[in-house]
Amino acid sequence: MIKLELADVGMRFGDVVALEGINLAVPRGSFVCVVGASGSGKSTLMSLVAGLTRPTSGEVRLDGYPVTMPGPDRGLVLQSGAVFPWRDVERNVGFGLELLPRLSKAERSERVLRYLEAVGLNEFRHALPKHLSGGQRQRVAIARALIVEPEVLLLDEPFGALDVQTKEDMQLLIRKVWRDTGTTVLMVTHDVEEAVFLGQRVVVLASRPGRVAADLSVPLGDHRDLSVKREDSFLALRAKIEDLVRAFHRTGGQGPRQVVAARSYTDSAARTRSAELSPPEPVEVTRPDSRT
Amino acid sequence: MSLPRRRPPRPTPSLLAIRKPNSRRATVVLVTLSVLVPLGLWWGLSVSGLIQPARYLPTPAATFAAALEMAGSGQLFTDAWASLQRVLLGFGLAIAVSVPLGIAMGTFRAGQSLFEPVIGLLRYLPASAFIPLLIIWLGLGEPSKVALLFIGTVFFNTLMTADAVRGIPTSLIDVSYTLGARTGEVVRKVVIPHSLPGMIDAVRVNAAAAWNFVVVAELIAADSGLGYRIVRLQRFSQVDRIFAVLAVIALIGLAIDLLLRLTRDRVGRWT
């Protein structure tokens, strides 16, 4: 069953086309990662799904209903964390619950405690964000988003600013959260390794304008630990997707041949979307010469 | 061709290293100098006999004696309290108007479009230029003085409050909406708490302006207050007492600033 759906979504800012003809279906309970180089409109896509901006064409649907504004059914975690600096950990996590009518204080703090436990921040519950590490702040942001029980968890480069070790801890945490809660997750990242490790599917965005270039399923099973990152099948898929991201990243000053090739590949990918995928040949053709 | 080379820089004396902390001793010495040197100059000049007649520049000791005498008669407290009351009323009104206005300007683009042009213009009109008008409209009594204080501080405080409010990262607002907050709740629970320290900073800066304006207002027409006292004393050339009043004005200003700074540090513990 489709939880979240983007139907022919396009977004322009004046003359700049940020996203064009995005079609994407996220089934309930699935974990979908969107990768793409900078300028591919990843964050714009997130803000459209969150309802913070309205698309200039097409429609975002949640359970079949069009998304028109932000709401607690789509929890958002940003790269910056965006925790409230004046609230301690406990009050950050409890923010969404404070807004609900008919929820007793006792009930609220009981829930806050449960979610603090889940992200391992129990002993820091009275700490101010300025005294937390980057990873701890992201834990606060994740707990704060989860506590209002969103239908979809939106992760916008949530671990982009973290060091590698912390990042892997957080990846394991988010996998655990996903498996425990059964929530639907849509994650945007530029880190292909992360996308392959976390996602059941990886969607590659082409840049300028942002389009869906490829949509690959990750045949790794749902029980993954960090060691899977060293397996051949993981490395092969990661390499393949990294090549795709490169190939569809249009930087300034590149020749038209490249663009045309990328476009034709987009079309073929669009036709075979959610099928197993996909021809690696165009990747070789379109790899920028300047990179050698 | 190789690039030209520069000789390596000489080691910088630690006092001139940019943004480097000084030793505790150096700090104490510098702070002491900053108080003692002007005081010493004043004292030196006042006892040198260069200023004639000598009472035009009283010594620090004479000033202190004059202050004690005025304090003893209770006059100093009556005047200080009268000035303080005017500040509390005039600046208090200015805060009551400028804070909501500034929040509206900093939060809503509509608020900015509506108020920024007119306030940006009005703030360039010097408050003292309004004195004749205020006297015509409101007479010589209290209302004209309170109004002068109000005019002198309200525009700046509005703009500075709006600036403080605008400093909130958009991501905090976005996240609040996705957690289910409505616009009113975002303003109340996110925008205002986040900008509170900045707003207090604005009040601190403008409290100094208010304290200046009250003395100006009392120079014109008043029957009490520290500014009024200075005008009175001028008639009898009691310079030592004028100095005493000036010292009191400075000390009260310092106390106000300290109070607001402590409040700000308390409120802004999270920054």
TrEMBL record, chain A:
Q: Name one GO molecular function term.
A: ATP binding
Q: Which residues form the ABC transporter domain?
A: 4-232
The alphabetical list of record keywords is: ATP-binding, Nucleotide-binding, Transport
- Region (Disordered) residue ranges read 256-292
Q: Keyword ATP-binding on this protein?
A: yes
Q: Which domain of life is it from?
A: Bacteria
> InterPro entries per the record?
AAA+_ATPase (IPR003593), ABC_transporter-like_ATP-bd (IPR003439), ABC_transporter-like_CS (IPR017871), ABC_transporter_ATP-bind (IPR050166), P-loop_NTPase (IPR027417)
Q: Which PANTHER family match?
A: ALIPHATIC SULFONATES IMPORT ATP-BINDING PROTEIN SSUB, TAURINE IMPORT ATP-BINDING PROTEIN-RELATED
Specify the protein name: ABC transporter ATP-binding protein
Q: What lineage does the source organism belong to? A: Bacteria, Bacillati, Actinomycetota, Actinomycetes, Micromonosporales
Automatic annotation (TrEMBL), chain B:
Q: Where is the ABC transmembrane type-1 domain?
A: 80-260
- Matching PROSITE patterns: ABC_TM1
Q: What are the GO cellular component annotations?
A: plasma membrane
Main localization, broad class: membrane
The reply on keyword Amino-acid biosynthesis is: no
> Which InterPro entries does the protein's record reference?
MetI-like, MetI-like_sf
Keyword Nucleus carried by entry: no
Protein name per the record: ABC transporter permease
Where in or outside the cell it occurs: the entry states: Cell membrane
Q: What is the originating organism of this protein?
A: Rhizocola hellebori
Xref: Gene3D superfamilies:
MetI-like
Family, per entry:
Belongs to the binding-protein-dependent transport system permease family.
State the UniProt keywords alphabetically: Cell membrane, Membrane, Transmembrane, Transmembrane helix, Transport
Give TM regions.
Answer: 26-45, 87-108, 120-140, 146-165, 203-222, 242-260
Q: What domain of life does the native source organism fall in?
A: Bacteria
Which Pfam families has this protein been placed in?
Answer: BPD_transp_1
Q: How does it sit in the membrane?
A: Multi-pass membrane protein
* GO terms of biological process kind: transmembrane transport
